[in-house]
Amino acid sequence: MPQITASIATLPRRISQLKQTLASISPQVDRINIYFDGHAESAINELVPYVDTHFMRAAHDTQRRGDAGKFYWAHQIKGYHFTCDDDLVYPPDYVETMIAAIERHERRVIVGVLGSRFTAFPIGYYCSRAGHLGLLAANSCDQLVHILGTGTVAYHTDTLEVNLSHFPRVNMSDAQLAIRAKRRGVSMVSIKRPKDWLQALVVAGASIFGEFKRTRNDDVKTALIQAEAPWPTLPPIDGSHEQPRISRRRTAPS
């Protein structure tokens, strides 16, 4: 069985939520990577009761990378890589279900839960999403999407080579992973699952999407997505139980 690695980027104000996240995901994986974005180095001591530190790898980086910290070790990882958020509780069958989806599609896709797709040429990163598969929503079948939320992503490293250089912009990892996958001809799939399969934790302070709702400004992310146009046309999101047709990989220059 290939090694299973989970990687998380976390903020200091979310240490209590992180403990719950680790308690849910750590029993399901072989290794945990935690990128501490702005924490004191002593923060790791608080996590000892929640994760076996013998298989935990931590980084305290002076360069604030935001959610891209999930990919701090990506170039070193072999096998199944799960990128997680510090404000989610993952179900006991999370890793098993996600790996089954990867293998169902013959390791040709990136899988996830939260997903969305754009119109032919988006005029807004958030505002021009033609279909949205929410984090807590049920999904009756696997659905092709343009974007997956990196808090609920998994892939086999044979499918896509990823490293930190692919995430130069802070707190834009969803868009940058989608662009990397598109350039390499790798599809993204939001997997079938029941309603409320994951649990979202209440957190204090701003979030990435919360900042957009406050400012209504997604210009930078929109520019990133528009620069990659055209995006492929995808079948409508519906209740069909047919598996999506995954085209053979066609790669563009990396």
TrEMBL record:
Residues 231-254 are annotated as: Disordered. CDD domains: Glyco_tranf_GTA_type (cd00761). This is Glycosyltransferase 2-like domain-containing protein.
